[in-house]
Design a protein that fits this description.
- The structure holds two protein chains of two kinds.
- Chain A is mainly α.
- Helix content of chain A is 66%, strand content 3%.
- In chain A, the strands form three sheets. Chain A has a three-stranded antiparallel β-sheet. Chain A has a two-stranded antiparallel ribbon with strand order 1-2.
- In chain A, helix 12 packs across helix 21 (521-534).
- Chain B is 74% helix and 3% strand.
- Chain B has 15 helices and four strands.
- Chain B has helices at 3-16, 20-23, 26-53, 60-91, 98-119, 121-124, 126-153, 162-183, 210-231, 233-243, 245-250, 255-281, 290-303, 308-330, 342-356; strands spanning 188-189, 199-202, 205-208, 283-284.
- Chain B starts with a helix and ends in a 14-residue tail after the last helix.
- Classes of the chains: A mainly alpha, B mainly alpha.
- At the A-B interface, helix 15, helix 19, helix 20, helix 21 and helix 24 of A face helix 1, helix 3, helix 8, helix 13 and helix 15 of B.
């Protein structure tokens, strides 16, 4: 048994080491050298040690051996984690030695990210022998910490892990938090060091304690249950995952559903909390300044795309990979209808059928066109399901891109050079400019986002939403129950397309010009990543997904190069580890869990979960 | 799994209901309109182009040349399509990342090719060098394919159907951007041995020397694969797993091993295709896998997904359609730079096949068996 455990630890450590080597070779570690986190510790150091710590955590997780659940004691956790960390460090050191032996320049001819400065970072700017020792000792310690944390009881583990995550998040959000503090005339040098631009140790400690206390007292959980009352109180079992993103998977059922104290009613708290949120959202652009507002505007555009795609994929269960078509339709038709000019080699020219409508007159037309396109795309593929549907819609997306960018349709859409001088959507009588001032644009996007959230939210529980639900769960049964699948599929495509086209229209307004390069298939995949990360069918999930996947890379230019890499990793990781997403839709996650139950492969996860609901014979959420 | 049957019943049921909207056979109307439009457009386009040829420079040698190019491209597509078809046959999943496996092979062999070109080995012993390049590409592609299966697909084998597909999309994005991070984002020139450089003339038609080599290689490989699947014991096991995974495992077939074998085969074919593609077009880059991947998937669907000869036929048809199609259909109706719209033709074929004959040319109704 002990030997088996050591072997597992060594293997996990080797994998963690390979992950570190991968991060180094793909260039991330060197690139993130310039991103300070806390004290003198940069993101590069974090990237070197996090895989080792996670490995230690994983090795010490409770495992099922011969049907019996075994948990590690803290002592065993430290030992296992240390072994794992040592193995991880050894692999990394082996890589460093190998590269040095072969000569950095030789290796660099193939792996362009391997550079002298990368090796310097991996050696902590020391000579090779002490550096190797430091690396091995450090990974061992970090791995042991991960193992210890994993073996500790949940009441300790949760707060500590969240506290550590909070340090990282607060450090990464410096561009948002620091200007907000300045605007509110709050001293911030205690939090962010003016020299390194990272957190100070004191600031980090404060954040750690705050976050840990929040989790320990279950504040987030209580707030969430108050803010978003469950729609299906009788049917939904207590969420074992908890509703907060930080909660970590297998907790006891929520015991604190009532309130904070006896004094104030839940309703009162809910109203106060919503008011606070509304005020924050309302003053945000003026707190964070134009640069971050620009990013928030982009987040809003992708939030619209995500909400639209969520209707098609999350509600109706139709995987649409050609969603960029609606984005493009929205943008190009806005341009044509509001007097955008084609860019040609000789100058600007009006497109065929060019009109000069106001943005607010043009938008309903654009939305109608997009809904019609949704019908046209939806009608021929009504009978296709699942993966075939995905590929065909991917094809439609590519067709749209090729046509919008083609020389053939140049007189209409400007071809490869695109369009320019698109309206700034001025409001008559009000001095706003949505193109030049991103803070104004933020509010324009906000209005449409709120509208889309409202529409999605009302649709979800309506007759239509329930029909989509039924269709997603089992199309044939839905049809047999008298739901016209033709009608509701087309409706889903049209609704999704309409909301997506608003995103496109706002995109055109925000930039004032368009090129076909903005309408790659990657837009579809980005929108898909947004809704997958948050959780299919979950409206708060889309918001979280857009903030994380669009907002963070926008803020951290160092991450921008690795955006798509991260999206790919997110898609894989979420599907493997948490298919219901970070902020799951109760119903979808129940469906997914029922699937797990019916499948031997996944059943073992259930052994690790305490809550077992009564099984129901339903189909999968995603089939 | 009688989806087809269920759908027919469902359609009958929805026709019998009396809602105003439901009685309208939307799908049928759209399909009829679509058919008419396509027939008119294709017929008209071809007619106009061919009548144009008399006065214009587009003689028959031009078309023959395009045909050879199309066949070479189609052979590469066929090799990639086989990877899709094999995996789909066994696992019922679209390995969206297969295009990246193909790219990895081409990219992996590039560094050897560049080194050989520098040292003169490539021109001194071209066949030996090519053999090494093929082996390297096959090794890299196979390694990545197997790793992908182990890490990303195996844990999801019994998950709802869209879960592995989304994972595969993520894997595709991940691999593509990892290669960009590893090796840089620029495209690089792939050296070609001087033996295969230049053109040959056959009568009045001249074409690149590389094209017949590509076609011949692909044919040999595909015959080999057909033999493997139909005649060897492992091939038999693969067909058994494709028919029914559970029963196959009850019969003592190691399903995991068969799945890995499938990914190995797909990876090897993708590696060969990668080198052939790189030799034909003379360049490699991290994003080179996406479009050929989609085109090859189209080819697999066109031929009937799950069928080995189907993938070959589908690949060849698609290759020819991509190279001949744009000029034949579009230049007659005065579309400027018709080759730009090559993608539209590929995807239109994909959409039309899936709508009108989802089983493909050689497939049965729903493509259930290899």
């Amino acid at each position: 048994m002990a030997r088996l455990l050591i072997r597992t630890a060594a293997w996990t450590g080797a994998i963690a080491g390979l992950v570190i080597v991968y991060l180094a070779m793909v260039g991330m570690i060197e690139r993130l050298d310039t991103l300070p986190i806390i004290g003198t510790v940069g993101m590069d150091t974090i990237l070197i040690f996090v895989p080792a710590a996670v490995g230690g955590w994983v090795v010490t997780r409770p495992r099922v051996v011969a049907g019996e659940r075994r948990t590690a004691t803290p002592g065993a956790g430290v030992a296992l984690g240390a072994a794992e960390g040592l193995a991880a460090g050894a692999v990394v050191e082996l890589g460093v030695v190998l590269v040095s032996a072969m000569g950095i320049e030789t290796v660099r001819q193939v792996f362009s990210a391997v550079s002298p400065s990368l090796i310097e970072i991996l050696r902590f700017h020391m000579a090779s022998v002490p550096a190797a020792l430091v690396l091995l000792v450090a990974t061992t310690v970090v791995g042991a910490l991960g193992g210890l944390l994993s073996a500790l009881p949940r009441s300790v583990r949760g707060p500590v892990a969240t506290g550590a995550a909070a340090i990282l998040v607060v450090a990464l959000l410096r561009q948002v938090i620091a200007p907000a503090f300045d605007q509110m005339k709050i001293e911030r040098d205690w939090l962010y060091s003016p020299i390194t631009l990272g957190l100070t140790w004191i600031g980090g400690l404060v954040m750690f304690v705050l976050a840990a206390a929040t989790v320990r007292l279950r504040v987030g959980h209580r707030l969430a249950t108050i803010l978003v009352p469950s729609r299906y109180p009788s049917a939904a079992p207590p969420e074992p995952e908890g509703l907060t993103a930080e909660a970590d998977g297998e907790g006891p059922p929520a015991e604190g559903r009532d309130a904070f104290g006896a004094g104030i009613s839940r309703r009162g708290i809910a109203i106060i909390a919503w008011c606070v949120i509304a005020v924050i959202v309302g003053v945000l652009p003026y707190l964070v300044g134009p640069v971050v507002s620009r990013i928030l505007g982009t987040v809003g555009i992708f939030l619209l795309l995500g909400l639209g795609l969520n209707i098609v994929v999350g509600f109706a269960g139709l995987l649409d990979l050609g969603y960029v078509a609606f984005f493009a339709v929205g943008a190009y038709f806005t341009a044509i209808l509001t007097g955008g000019q084609r860019v040609t080699f000789t100058g600007y020219e009006a497109p065929t059928f060019g009109l000069h409508l106001s943005f607010y007159v043009a938008l309903p037309i654009v939305v109608a066109v997009a809904a019609f396109v949704g019908l046209v795309i939806g009608a021929p593929v009504l009978r296709l399901r699942g993966d075939y549907l995905a590929i065909v819609t991917l094809g439609f997306g590519e067709i749209a891109r090729v046509i919008f960018g083609s020389t053939w349709a140049q007189n209409l859409f400007g071809g490869s050079l695109g369009m320019s001088s698109i309206t700034a959507a001025e409001l008559p009588g009000v001095n706003v400019n949505f193109q030049s001032d991103p803070r104004h644009f933020y509010f324009l996007v906000l209005v449409f986002c709120l509208l889309a959230v409202f529409v999605s939210w009302r649709l979800q529980g309506s007759r239509v939403g329930r029909a989509w639900n039924a269709m997603r769960e089992d199309e044939q049964v839905a049809d047999a129950m008298g739901i016209s699948t033709t009608r509701f599929k087309l409706l889903a495509f049209a609704m999704g397309g309409a909301i997506g086209s608003i995103g496109g229209a706002l995109f055109a307004v925000s930039l004032g010009s368009l090129t076909i390069a903005s309408f790659q298939i990657l837009v579809s995949i980005t929108a898909l990543s947004v809704i997958i990360l948050g959780g299919l069918g979950s409206i708060p999930g889309v918001v979280v997904g857009a903030l994380v996947l669009i907002g963070l890379p926008g803020l951290l230019t160092q991450f921008a190069d690795y955006r798509l890499l991260i999206y790919g990793a997110v898609l894989i990781a979420i599907m493997l580890l948490r298919p219901q997403g970070l902020v799951p839709n109760v119903r979808v996650s129940r469906e997914l869990r029922e699937d797990e139950r019916s499948q031997d492969q996944w059943a073992k996860h259930l052994l690790e979960q305490d809550a077992v609901d009564a099984p129901e014979p339903t189909g999968g959420a995603l089939t | 799994m009688s989806n087809e049957e269920g759908e027919v019943q469902a359609e009958v049921a929805s026709d019998q209901r009396l809602g105003r909207f439901e009685r309208l056979p939307v799908r049928r109307i759209v399909l009829t309109l679509l058919t008419v439009t396509i027939v008119v457009a294709v017929g008209g386009g071809i007619f106009k182009t061919l009548t144009l040829t008399g006065v214009d420079h587009l003689g028959w040698t031009f078309w023959a040349n395009l045909l050879v190019i199309g066949l070479a491209l189609g052979s590469v597509y066929a090799l990639i399509a086989l990877g899709y078809t094999l995996v789909y046959g066994i696992l019922r999943m679209i390995n969206f990342a297969h295009g990246e496996i193909f790219m990895a092979g081409a990219f992996g062999s590039f560094f050897f090719a560049a080194a050989y070109a520098k040292s003169g080995f490539l021109n001194a012993h071209p066949w030996l060098a090519l053999a090494i390049l093929f082996l390297v590409a096959m090794g890299v592609s196979t390694g990545i394919a197997v790793l992908l299966e182990r890490v990303a697909y195996r844990p999801l084998r019994n998950a709802p159907r869209l879960v592995p597909l989304i994972t595969a999309i993520g894997a595709s994005l991940f691999l593509q951007n990892s290669f960009q991070g590893f090796f840089g984002s620029q495209t690089r020139g792939y050296p070609r041995p001087s033996l295969l450089d230049g053109t040959i003339k056959l009568g009045r038609v001249s074409f690149d020397k590389i094209d017949p080599v590509v076609i011949a290689t692909a044919i040999v490989v595909m015959i080999g694969l057909q033999f493997f699947v139909k005649r060897t014991k492992t091939g038999k096991a693969m067909r058994a797993v494709a028919q029914d995974r559970e029963i196959a495992s009850l019969m003592g077939i190691d399903v995991d091993r068969v799945v890995v074998t499938t990914f190995v085969l797909g990876g090897m074919l993708a590696g060969i295709a990668g080198v052939l593609y790189a030799l034909t077009f003379g360049q490699v880059g991290a994003t080179m896998g996406f479009l050929p991947g989609i085109a090859a998937f189209t080819a697999a669907v066109l031929g009937g997904i799950g069928s080995v000869p189907g993938a070959a036929i589908g690949g060849l048809i698609l290759g020819v359609a991509e190279s001949v199609g744009p000029y034949l259909l579009l230049s007659g109706i005065n579309v400027p730079s018709p080759f730009e719209l090559k993608g539209v033709i590929t995807f239109s074929i994909l959409v039309l096949v899936l709508i009108f004959r989802p089983g493909g040319i050689l497939g049965t109704g729903e493509a259930e068996k290899v």
